[in-house]
Amino acid sequence: MSNNQSTNPGDQLLEGVNTVSDALRNISGVKDVDIATAPRKIVWEDGKVKLYHFEREEKSKTTTPVLVSYALVNRWEMLDLQPNRSLIRKLISEGLDIYVIDWGYPTRIDRYKTLEDYILGNINDCTDFIRAEHNIDRINLLGVCQGGTFSLIYAALFPEKVKNLVTLVTPVDFDNDEGLLFKWAKDMDVDAIVDGFGGIVPGDFLNTGFDLLKPMNKTRKYMSLPETMADKGKLMNFLRMEHWVADSPAQAGETYRRFIKDMYQQNLLAKGEFELDGRKVDLKKITVPILTIYAKEDHIVPPDTTRPINDLVGSKDKELMEFPGGHIGVFVGSRSQKVLAPAVAQWLADRDK
Amino acid sequence: MKNQFDIFFEGQKKAMDFWSGLAGQMNEAFQNKANGNGNSKNKPEAQELFTDWFKKQQAFFEEALKAGSNPQAAFEKAPEQIRQWMEMQTDFANKWADYYRDNAEKLGIKIPEFTSNSSSTAFFEEGMKSWKNWMGQGNKWFSEEVLDKMPFNMRPHYTNFLEAYDFMHRYWEPMQRLVQNGLDTKEMVDKYFSPEAYQKLVNQMMGFRSIGNVSELIEHINQWFEAYFNHTRQEAGEWSTVSEAWKEKMREFATKGNLPFFEMAYDFNNRLRDQVLPFYNIMAQGRQTEIAKLMRDMQFAYIAFVLKSAELQSKAYEAGQFALPDTIRELYHQYKDKKEMANYEDFFQYYINKLEESLLETLHSEEYSKLQSEVAALGTKIKAMADRSSELMSADLPFLTKTDGDDIAKEVNALRRKARSLEQKVAELEKALLLAGKPAVAKEEPASTAKSTAKKSTSKR
Asked: Are residues B283 and B381 in the same domain?
């Protein structure tokens, strides 16, 4: 389990000694695995849903704050995994004022929570809160993955409340066979799953599906563990990522059922046939500037499911941004810090007035 | 009480004495033999092999101790390194053993007495046992340190990986021979890495719980349900008929080699279920009957789940069955070109990449997707039935049931929605009042005024 280059057994031994000594020293020194440490305050709450406002040392460079809507799958903490790999910290340092919705951990009491509750309820309430706090009419919306799909729906229904829209690795055209999730979801008996689980779909069930997308990924990751552990920084990266992956909230059954049926199985949003609380969602009604970011090697949300956003919206000011790497690399890769966050911040700053 | 370090040292001393004594004898014998009969051909080879090995052992040991301020610290800090060291020693000892077996007899060397058994194989096994024991201890310690720091639900994945990695390592030596000799046909690979071993490895890597022998499992399921129905025979009727029918069918499948097995068995299961159904329609209605009917449904659903899961697993096994022969073929070409054998880590890496390629092809297939969906649906269906039967069984107990919880959830959600709608209306109202130049004090106004304003505001929208 080592990458020793030397062919001399004595050298190999010494390298091994050093590697494993460091690894053990590092691992035994780990007391706690902390993620999402950027300072923040809870400024609004409704049941399990919270709205965080991230603290800034200086005044924001832009007048319009950004509301970040993450997916219901996994947790928003991926955006602030650790201080030097934090999209949120970087966006703040680039001058943006950031709010993030934390969807919480649904339990059985939330089994009847619907897409309407999330989008017309929670997102709209958070938007109104920010508008009132800042005394502005419109906010910037940044949606991540499924949270991006929610943002598109929201922006189409409430164009008067959205100034600019940024979507990150967001699926909109679900008629796709390239991505295994898209293929499997079409055959999924979602009623049996939701009802069988008693209306609340466990996070571990979803994680099993994600693991199968690259069945040997975990094996590969663990193979390089001794070397990873020998470097304290890498060790903490590894443990933080493990904690993030493991921290997978359950899904409110009715929302999950509807999302799978309407999006994955019938592709209603892209077809212009999706309805929310009786209101048809027409993406052409989105006329605000929109930035669509996709990851070139994304195996969870393939580019072909994301790029059509540009064709479906009614905006004239629209831009597609390709990002090298995979779905998670968008948030935690070094390029995310160096390239993506500054680009997003600049794009929003240019459209702030 | 002995700690790991004491055990390690004891074993090390024993092994060092053993190896050095034996090697000394052999070296001497080589020299005598070479001097006596003028056969100098073996001398440099034997001496080189031995002295090189012995020096390396000493050097390794000394270097290992330098890693810490004291020997115990060295071990505590470096069990993984020790594991690697032991692996190196084992490899070397194996090479030496091969050489010894080939030459010792010819040179008239006696294999030293060792414990109760003086056969040559026992002699080597004894030495190897100690090494493996230390390796196991070091590895275990290291793994526990890592596992302790990992989230609870990630630990099984890591344990599966360790088991798979170690399991495959047991076959590393024959794999090297296959690579060196270009023996890459599936038949040849199966001789060294049996289909059962391959299935075990795939189970570890994919996190499968092996179904094992399907007919035996179905029989166990039927036995379990039979035992249950023995308690409720009055309500459920004669259940041994179901088990008998399944036994008969299994005999038929096994003797005639029916194919496709899973499809036919699944179909038979459904037909059997349908045949049993009418009995419930003529039974007295009531909670006991409902429970009995649920249990009957569970029995068939469980058998269907087992059949579908076995079919799903067999798809994964089929998909990757050529990954190992392919790996050996490609590594053989590399070996031929470079004259250098890949190490175990490279081999393992290569193999899992090949395995993943093959698996992904199957995971992308229509057939797999549908099968996976059926397995998931059946699994959750059984869970729902089990939940329901538990509820029925405990209906008279003073507990809130899942159904009660669902009713509460429904009520709560409806109330939450209503509250939110009212909040949004109030907010609109406040805004409308502000725009109209009135103070936003709607909450303090008389109820009748607020109501009429709200109506006005709503109608405007």
From this structure: yes
Boundary (domain end) residue, out of B149, B180, B200: B149
Q: Is the pLDDT of residue B348 over 80?
A: yes
Q: Which domain holds residue B386?
A: 214-321+365-393
- CB < 8 Å to A278, chain B: none
Mutate to test the interface with B, among A2, A219, A264 (most CBs of B within 10 A): A219
In angstroms, the separation between the Cα of residue B128 and the nearest Cα of chain A is 20
A256-260, A292-296, B2-6: range with lowest mean pLDDT: B2-6
- Best-predicted range by mean pLDDT (B55-59, B328-332, B452-456): B328-332
pLDDT in tens, B26-43: 555 545 544 544 444 444
Residue B389 reports pLDDT greater than 70 = yes
Q: Would you tell me which residues 274-293 of chain A have a C-beta closer than 8 angstroms to some C-beta of chain B?
A: none
**Is the pLDDT reported for residue B107 higher than 70?**
no
Closest CA to A27 of A17, A39, A16, A19: A19
Q: Do B151 and A247 touch (CB under 8 A)?
A: yes
DSSP codes joined into one string, A258-301: HHIIIIIIT-HHHHT--EETTEE--GGG--S-EEEEEETT-SSS
Residue of A nearest to B365 (CA): A183
Question: Would you state the structure tokens that stand for residue B359, as one six-digit string?
Answer: 């698996």
Q: For A201-251, how does the pLDDT look when each residue is reduced to its tens digit (9 = 90+)?
A: 999 999 999 999 999 998 998 888 877 888 888 888 899 999 999 999 999
Domain count, chain B: 3
Cβ–Cβ gap B63/A212 under 8 Å? no
The complex scores an ipTM of 0.88
Question: Nearest-CA distance from A346 to chain B in Å?
Answer: 33
Residues of B in contact with A31 (CB under 8 A): none
B103 with B224, same domain? Answer: no
Whether residue B57 is contained in a domain is answered as: yes
Q: ∠ CA(B418), CA(A119), CA(A245), 5° rounding?
A: 120
Cα→Cα distances A229→A219, A290, A332, B217, Å: 16, 41, 19, 43
CB contact under 8 A, B157 and A218: yes
B69: how many CB neighbours lie within 10 A of its CB?
10
Place of tokens 């109030």: B426
Contact: B410, A112; criterion CB under 8 Å: yes
CB contact under 8 A, A13 and B153: no
CATH class entry, domain A35-350: alpha beta
Q: Does A1 touch chain B (CB under 8 A)?
A: yes
**The pLDDT value given to residue B22:** 55
Option in B150, B348, B360 nearest A242 (CB):
B150
Q: Which residues pair with A85 in a beta bridge?
A: A82
Query: A255-270: per-residue pLDDT in tens?
Result: 999 999 999 999 999 9
